[in-house]
Write a structure and sequence with these properties.
By secondary structure, the protein is an alpha/beta fold. It has 3 domains: 138 residues, Conserved hypothetical protein from pyrococcus furiosus pfu- 392566-001, ParB domain; 132 residues, no CATH class; 159 residues, no CATH class. Helix content is 60%, strand content 8%. It has a 6-stranded mixed sheet with strand order 1-3-5-4-6-2. The protein is flat, with a radius of gyration of 26 Å.
Amino acid sequence: MSYANYQSKQEFNAARRRVFVEEWLSFFTGRPTDLLAFEDVRQSLRLKDSSYKGLQEIELDKIVGSVGRYRDFTRTFLPKNDRNQDRWARVDAVTHGMMGVPPIEVYKVGDVYFVRDGNHRVSVARLHDAKTIEAYVIEYKTPIPIDNYDDLDDILIKMEQTDFLKETGLDKIRPGHNVEFTEPGRYRFVSKHITFHKYLKETELGRELSDEEAVASWYDHVYLPLIQLIRERDILRHFPGRTEADLYAWLVYHRAALEEEAKELGSVDDEALIDELEKERTANPLKWLIGLFQRGLELKDLPLLEERAEFLEETHLDELRPGHDIEFTEPGSYQLVKEHIEVHRYLKETETKQKIPYSEAVTSWYDTVYVSIVSLIQKRNLLDYFPGRTVGDLYIWFVSRRAILEKRQSAMGEVSDEQVIEDLEQAGRCTPMTRLARYLRQKLDL
């Protein structure tokens, strides 16, 4: 094997290892890691009109999808599997040569691009930190703006919102409205609800209503009263990442389900619905935990020593558990642990059906959660694989990785400690910690 080929295969292996880091970061930031499939986007946006724009220099970080290879690469075009190693290495070797590589071919939609031909060239270019690449561009007109952080759900939501506002005129009838959803399908659901409200009002008044009257009546007398209850009970804080409109849709859907069960229309009042919504948070502790982690990552402005001092002052862990070994090397980690203690406290209170003091929550978390995980880490000598890191750092990794695995496998509570430990051990064997730390710092500072 020539030196060029050997070097290219080493770079491919480095790219494969970085996939693991991307998944870790995705858990905390919520940013998508999957490439978009062009055909899905084309159908969702009903794209038809296109025009050839010729050869252009395009920004690599605005390439978000592919026509046929969207399963083979991450959102940043890291290779997801080893099947294409030889082809990737050949492209990389050519890139190092004198001839260079030919331009790629892309479709442009909004402000982003989809690779028609040249996925491996994009992958190699991004690994080498190139900022742009030459491409033959075919542009599709789109009715909505798209940016490089959007996933397919974001695009569907934008399209549905555009259709909803065009159909109802709500932005003109009630400027400043807050009807915004975070999941596809809800605008269509609310549109049907407005139609049903119009029918009921026409029956009540004995006359026809214009579409504008129906929309205004629904917003003023149906939507806003429920939103006011949601605000009074401060329910939104239990559902991080959601909107008031999301909770409204949940309430409407469950009102219909409960009334169907009771076989009596109008039998469920708003207060009973709000009580049901508050119970929903108990059924989704993992979602709540993820939301806390995502918000916590943004609170990493304090210097590390100051952050640790604040953590110890708030938790009193030095007095409660003298000799504890909780120490982190990355800003934001102490904040994450404080929120993890709050989650543990919430779950314990739900389990025992009684309030527990914060100090009791801290000791319970330390004794039953932290110590048990750290014992596994120490038993397997995993710190040997991560020079410069602490057991606390690996605890943070363990908790986040378990959540990722459970979400991926749709197996809440069924991923064993041993599975997560083996995953961590494998990561340590194949990923030098110095590379990991450097990469994390680069990404977290974005």
